[in-house]
Automatic annotation (TrEMBL):
UniProt source species: Hibiscus syriacus
Domain Myosin N-terminal SH3-like: 71-120
Name assigned to this protein: Myosin-6
Keywords: Actin-binding, ATP-binding, Calmodulin-binding, Motor protein, Myosin, Nucleotide-binding
Domain of life, per lineage: Eukaryota
Binding positions for ATP per the UniProt entry: 219-226
Gene Ontology terms: cellular component: cytoplasm; membrane; myosin complex
One GO molecular-function entry: actin filament binding
UniProt cross-references to Pfam families, sorted A to Z: Myosin_head, Myosin_N
GO BP term (any one): actin filament organization
Length: 523
């Protein structure tokens, strides 16, 4: 279990810079994971104490207690290389060796340290809060998550943490307006575990205690962080939204509509997730004294730049490149595009299409979302010109030039792409070429121009593509922020962090219900 979504009281309102956010949240993640474990552990100890007392046994933590309390006839869990954990009954105890007949029919002899007690009275539907488990160890937690997952209960609390298991299919009934109504004002823990409950608790705490709040959503890639974040945002928009009296879109509509725009430019297909966010996002929703949304700000960080020019099979580059290649004919002509298979930055992988995704429709939908968040037609044209220029830039190849260690565009095809890139960037062709095949070193007295060999020129080309793309992304975020508008007078906000980077589990055994995603709320 490595994924945590934490809500914390955010005393500091503004001025969180990127490195501060990263440091803060990595620190908080460790802190809350420690506190969470401690809290759960104490809850467990308390419960065990009661149970052990009743049974006349001494108090011990369940992991420590396991070996000594295991006797012939005990129900236990034992590790299995294929199935992760198997349950069974102890048939023989010889010193440190325990023989178990598993329910799958296997007989296993294991060391006592690898055998964990199983609750024979575990309810068949599991429990909605892990602290209610008789034993809080890995097999117990996984068994509970699996039982609940099998009956479409994808959310489970662990004390004040919410764990979300990715259902990998739409469950619309869980996110309807009716559901939001149910969670409005309900005490935390009264209804089934749900991100709406987390968002509602954050909102109420903010209103009642007049303290800003933050929700941290964390989990490995594909866990469902972005989907959970969207549910949280929808609920906050529902609670704090006010219908706009004019034609103008409301702040909350703009915040919600910014998702498809950011996803088009910041998400890509990876081996783990067809719509993987390749950037971190912190959305700050500001509220007025009445608890209505008065402004918002989106901060993004750590966009994965290398993907722009390096894609490994079977992943893809950023979605926007493919949707632009599928744009209506007049746009294709305008940007001199064509089949994605003809562009170096896209053809390094054999994956071009996504199941169930029509890139043409995605292009139109992205443009519509851009309209909503206030990006004008002219600006949209400029954005896609830059995207197309990057694709053309990637097709410029270099060969040795006339001078030693110099380079020049390889052939007419490369010259065509260089010229097109310059046209689309609206920059001088010679200046663009020089920036790729030459390096200018400025010393105190003079500036020295050095020619670059073909390999280094190709590296310059890629460096330019990456920096331009990342600047474009930052520009988009700034543009969205200006359009949404911040409420500088607001003193209360709820921040939601959709973090990424916690992608490696040393052990992630249960592939069927893997990728848990936790939410934690400190009291
Ligand atoms: N609650 C949910 N209901 C339905 N489908 C979901 C849910 N959560 C996740 N999914 C599915 O799983 C996919 C991956 O989820 P999501 O993009 O939220 O993962 P992530 O944790 O943000 O991953 P990454 O770190 O790669 O961005 C979604 O595109 C969606 O198909
Ligand atoms: Mg994501």
């Amino acid at each position: 279990m490595s994924d945590v979504v934490i809500r914390l009281r955010c005393a500091k309102r503004r001025g969180l810079n990127t490195s501060y956010i990263i440091w803060l949240f990595s620190f908080l993640q460790r802190l809350f994971s420690y506190l969470g474990n401690k809290e759960i552990h104490s809850a467990r100890l308390e419960r065990n104490e009661r149970e052990e007392r009743a049974r006349g046994k001494s108090l011990e933590c369940e992991r420590c207690a396991a070996p000594s309390s295991i006797i012939v006839g005990s129900h236990v869990w034992v590790e299995d290389p294929d199935e992760a954990w198997l349950d069974g009954e102890v048939t023989e105890v010889k010193g440190d060796d325990i023989k178990i007949n598993t329910t799958s029919g296997k007989t296993i002899v294991a060391k006592s340290a690898n055998v964990y007690p199983k609750d024979p009275e575990f309810p068949s539907c599991g429990v909605d809060d892990m602290t209610k488990l008789a034993y809080l160890h890995e097999p117990g937690v996984l068994q509970n998550l699996r039982c609940r997952y099998d009956i479409n209960e994808i959310y489970t609390y662990t004390g004040n943490i919410l764990i979300a298991v990715n259902p990998f299919r739409r469950l619309p009934h869980l996110y309807s307006n009716h559901m939001m109504e149910q969670y409005k004002g309900a005490a935390f823990g009264e209804l089934s575990p749900h991100p709406f409950a987390v968002a509602d608790a954050a909102y109420r705490n903010m209103i009642n205690e007049k303290i800003s709040q933050a929700i941290l959503v964390s989990g490995e890639s594909g866990a469902g962080k972005t989907e959970s974040t969207k549910s949280l945002m929808r609920y906050l928009a529902y609670m704090g939204g006010k219908a706009s009296k004019t034609e103008e879109r409301s702040v909350e509509q703009k915040v919600l509509e910014s998702n498809p725009v950011l996803e088009a430019f910041g998400n890509a297909k990876t081996v783990r997730n067809n719509n993987s966010s390749r950037f971190g996002k912190f959305v700050e929703i500001q509220f007025d004294k009445k608890g209505q949304i008065s402004g918002a700000a989106i901060r993004t960080y750590l966009l994965e730049r290398s993907r722009v020019c390096q894609v490994s099979d079977p992943e893809r580059n950023y979605h926007c490149f493919y949707m632009l290649c599928a744009a209506p004919a007049e746009d294709i002509e305008k940007y001199k595009l064509g089949n994605p298979r003809t562009f170096h930055y896209l053809k390094q992988s054999n994956c071009y299409d996504l199941d169930g995704v029509d890139e043409y429709k995605e292009y139109l939908a992205t443009k519509r979302a851009m309209d909503v968040v206030g990006i004008s037609q002219e600006e949209q044209d400029a954005i896609f010109r830059v995207v197309a220029a990057i694709l053309h830039l990637g097709n410029v190849e270099f060969v040795k030039g006339k001078e030693i260690d110099s380079s020049q565009p390889k052939d007419d095809k490369s010259r065509f792409h260089l010229k097109t890139a310059a046209e689309l960037f609206k920059c001088n062709l010679k200046a663009l070429e020089d920036s790729l095949v030459k390096r200018v070193m400025v010393t105190r007295d003079e500036s020295i121009t050095k020619s670059l060999d073909p390999d280094t020129a190709a590296l310059s080309r890629d460096a330019l593509a990456k920096i331009v793309y990342s600047k474009l992304f930052d520009w988009l975020v700034d543009k969205i922020n200006v359009s949404i508008g911040q409420d500088t007078a607001s003193e209360l906000l709820i921040g939601v962090l959709d973090i990424y980077g916690f992608e490696s589990f040393k052990t992630n055994r249960n592939s069927n219900i893997s990728r848990p995603n936790l939410l934690k709320i400190p009291y």
